Q: What sequence folds into this?
């Protein structure tokens, strides 16, 4: 069955095997950025958004478009999570907190510790998205550009800057080393 998607009254076709062809890799990408249970929900949301969205084959391939949707959903999830943690923090300050709050704080902190996580957190969001689309999604510069709506040259400069910052934060270790020579 071909799914018809309309925009401005023009029928746009999504590949009939869109879900089967791309769900596993989109889920894997999200699961590398967020907990598994959240990845399950967000990966499904990617395809709901795809069916409701405005895919135009003239603009680019469907795969980077799906990664763009996934990246935006991950960012939205993180913003909501940050708001939730800030609200919990404000409530805990007023309530004085208890043992459960301390345990929750320790579990949350442990999840985000580690030099690489800290280094990634230190990047600007736009640079971090480029790094993660390349490292976790396996997208090319052109595909990352399509996913984020930026030129491939901008992808290259953001990736270069991010690699330099990550190497510096990790003590001159290149976490995105592509081969044994560099």
A:
């Amino acid at each position: 069955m071909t799914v018809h998607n309309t925009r401005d009254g023009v029928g746009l076709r999504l590949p009939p095997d869109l879900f089967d062809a791309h769900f596993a890799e989109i889920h894997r990408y999200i699961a590398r950025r967020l907990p598994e249970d959240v990845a399950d929900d967000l990966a499904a949301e990617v395809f709901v958004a795809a069916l409701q969205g405005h895919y135009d084959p003239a603009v680019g391939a469907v795969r980077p478009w799906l990664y763009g949707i996934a990246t935006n959903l991950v960012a939205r999830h993180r913003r909501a999570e940050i708001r939730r943690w800030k609200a919990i923090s404000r409530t805990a300050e007023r309530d004085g907190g208890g043992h459960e709050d301390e345990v929750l704080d320790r579990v949350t902190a442990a999840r985000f510790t580690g030099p690489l996580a800290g280094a990634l957190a230190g990047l600007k969001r736009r640079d971090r998205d480029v790094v993660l689309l390349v490292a976790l999604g396996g997208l090319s510069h052109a595909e990352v550009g399509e996913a984020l709506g930026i030129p491939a040259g901008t992808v290259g400069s953001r990736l270069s800057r991010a690699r330099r910052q990550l190497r510096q934060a990790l003590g001159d270790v290149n976490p995105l080393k592509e081969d044994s020579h560099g």
